[in-house]
Design a protein that fits this description.
Layout: H1 7-17, H2 21-58, H3 67-100, H4 103-137, H5 152-185, H6 189-222, E1 223-224, E2 236-237, H7 240-266, H8 269-296, H9 302-327, H10 333-343
Parallel strand pairs: 1-2
Helix pairs in contact: 2-3, 2-5, 3-4, 4-5, 4-6, 6-7, 6-9, 7-8, 8-9
InterPro entries: UPF0658_Golgi
Keywords: Membrane, Transmembrane, Transmembrane helix
Transmembrane segments: 21-40, 81-99, 153-174, 199-223, 243-261, 273-295, 301-324
Amino acid sequence: MPKILSNEWFMDKWAKLNDSIWTKLYIIVSVIQTIIVIALEIRVFNRNDSIRENVEEFGNSSTCNIQYSTNRMLRIEQENVIFIIFQLYQLWFCFDAILSQNTIQLIAVTIMNGICAGYSIVQIEEIRIWYMDLNKSCSNVFEKASNPAGYDIPLVITLIIFATVMGFLAFQLYQQFGWIIYRRIGGSIEIQTIYRRQLILVILLKIDLFFLLLFSIESWMTFTLEDQTERLESLYYIPKTIYYYHRVVTFSIIFLEFVVYRSLRRERRYGMLIFIFLWIAVVVDLILILCFSIKTARDSWYFLICFVIFSIMVSIITWVYSIIVTKDFNRGLKEIWYKKNSEFPMDDRHNVILRQLSLD
């Protein structure tokens, strides 16, 4: 296996990106999608921020309480920022799918694109509900100026188009990578099944790393240790013990990801067992956060709740697959990788292209 950042390593990655017309198109479209979608989402964010500032300038009065509305709009703006960060993550995910030639990851990208398109529609409904709540507090004071046709609809259409195009390209690459995988590990159904399970676990770990760390950072800004009623309109109260437990778990996620990756490549059971045991703490942490998210906030933030529920589901599936993959150790896959890696040594530059058939 080539050393990271060595000339051979770069040549290997570059060869995979330029392997076919479909890999080139997939990367180009991914980059274009990221640029356009982020630009459109920034427009939506600026629109929302402008609306909130306009409402804040009005101020509170005896007949009009805007605090609830401004807090809720701040949450919507945070969702916009998370969506932008997710686009950057998805771009990396697309590159990684090509570099690792992971067929399962191509399917995951297609699903993500569909979810993004769906969320862009939800954003329109969020603003509509926000205006309804605002007008309940301040009847006929604020004129509706969200202009979904100029801000939200272009984003929805763009995401649907890119989701369709990326789905088509993913289908073409699925066929291409399927043949490469067959050449890698042969025609044994058992070995192919073991290999797919490992691919699924790797994808789950990548998703976990993004969602759990992003959620952890978001939760530090959202949760408070102060049990004060007036603050619970915009923040969530959790006990001090749970709060610091959550922080410890957050920092342990990176360590656990490192342990499981190293153990998976080398089929080390003790490393996998450490991950399986400690990952339970991550699931428990998410469940506790979910309980307090629903329980303590006067106005539940449904985006956060859905975010936590999704993280719990993915974490549990990751835990289950880590057990399944551990049971698959020493059943022949490691020996196949070793044999393939030995056939094309990296000290021979003429074999760099052939090394695409070995484990990335």
